[in-house]
Amino acid sequence: MAAVLAGIGGFLPPRVVTNEDLSATLDTSDEWIRTRTGISERRFVSGGLSTGGLAVEAGARALRSARADAVDAVDAVVVATTSPERLCPAVAPEVASRLGLGQVAAFDLTSACSGFLYGLAASAGLIASGAADTVLFIGAEAFTTLVNQQDRSTAPIFGDGAGAVVLRRGEPDEPGALGPFDLGSDGSLADLLAVPAGGSRQRSADGGLGHGAVPTGDWYLRMEGRPLYQQAVEHMTRSAQSVLKHADWSVADVDWFVGHQANVRIVRAVAEELELPEERVAVNIDRVGNTLSASVPLLLNDIAARGDLRPGDRVLLSAFGAGLSWGSAVLVWPDVAAVPVS
Q1: Per-residue b or e along 296-314, where b marks 16 or more CB atoms closer than 10 Å to that residue's CB
Q2: Domain co-membership, 156 together with 82
Q3: Rounded CA gap, 155 and 42, in Å?
Q4: Number of structural domains, the chain?
Q5: CA distance 90 to 101
Q6: Cα–Cα–Cα angle for 39, 185, 328, rounded to 5 degrees
Q7: Which pLDDT does position 69 carry in this prediction?
Q8: Domain containing residue 127: CATH number
Q9: What pLDDT, in 10s, does the model give residues 187-234?
Q10: Does residue 194 lie in a domain region?
């Protein structure tokens, strides 16, 4: 048996933040941001909206996309996030409750920008093991709350949002069946992209004295951009090549490359390494920024909703993120309803 994609949905918070908005408080400009990242605008949470609310909205849309009785069929809810509501407990049980799914299995996983690929694999594992017949899997991020908005090297990059898919038990040869996965990590480079404070390492080191005991900057993301770029291109390329080999696909078989939207230059560099033409490379980073675990499902929903991604198209997914971690997967796109995210 296989995990088959049966529904998809996305949600973006209403607050739009343009490059011009950022330029009002940062030493930067619209041209500087666009030429280095490909981003023109992104969405920020506000007014109390956070990861859980984003996840609920995207999850509800994915359930509607799947079928009218999808709510009654869900056996498990998995939420991938790097910006949890709280350190404890996980947000997934609350999301399941708010969606009216009852006392189903529910848990979070954290793999930063690779979260959607890792979560797909974990959700597929629940189905393969017989623990669930239908899984609602959501990538949701309010990561801008962990970014120093006075840091011009990180503030322009990230946006908030959520993307969700419904996976059901099915046959490995039917459209929507998730193909081979390739996952990897390198923890020796974890400090290249990290939020130093807030976890047990910092709390143990300062004797549990709390927020004021560490430098304010440690509560926000730190990023080493140049080495991350090199690592991202290398590992996404290798991972994509590996999963294509295991799927017995050639590059010519790929109709769409849907890569994590970290930076448009990374996406294009990976596509160039794979020798994929530009017209088969999906991009939406210009209007959403880097939404971490929500990136890939939001992009899938976008190109499906506008009719560019069609039933029968062969799709290559790939992502890279903090950890360091990376992953890839393939699927043949099924006939599912996708609604544009405004």
Answers
A1: bbbbbbbbbbeeebeeebb
A2: yes
A3: 11
A4: 2
A5: 16
A6: 60
A7: 58
A8: 3.40.47.10
A9: 999 999 999 988 888 888 766 665 567 788 889 999 998 999 999 999
A10: no
Return the HEC string of the chain.
CEEEEEEEEEECCCEEEEHHHHHCCCCCCHHHHHHHHCCCEEEECCCCCCHHHHHHHHHHHHHHHHCCCHHHHCCEEEEECCCCCCCCCCCHHHHHHHCCCCCCEEEEECCHHHHHHHHHHHHHHHHHHCCCCEEEEEEEECHHHHCCCCCCCCCCCECCEEEEEEEEEECCCCCCEEEEEEEEECHHHHHHEECCCCCHHHHHHCCCCCHHHCCHHHHCCEECHHHHHHHHHHHHHHHHHHHHHHHCCCHHHCCEEEECCCCHHHHHHHHHHHCCCHHHECCCHHHHCECHHHHHHHHHHHHHHCCCCCCCCEEEEEEEECCCEEEEEEEECCCCCCCCCC
- Report the catalytic residues: 113, 260, 290
Least confident of 137-146, 211-220, 290-299: 211-220
Q: Are residues 23 and 154 in the same domain?
A: yes
Instruction: Look at strands 134-141 and 76-80 and give their pairing.
Output: parallel
Residue 29 token pair? 């400009």
Domain match, 145 and 279 both: no
Structural domain range at position 17: 2-170
pLDDT for residue 212? 61
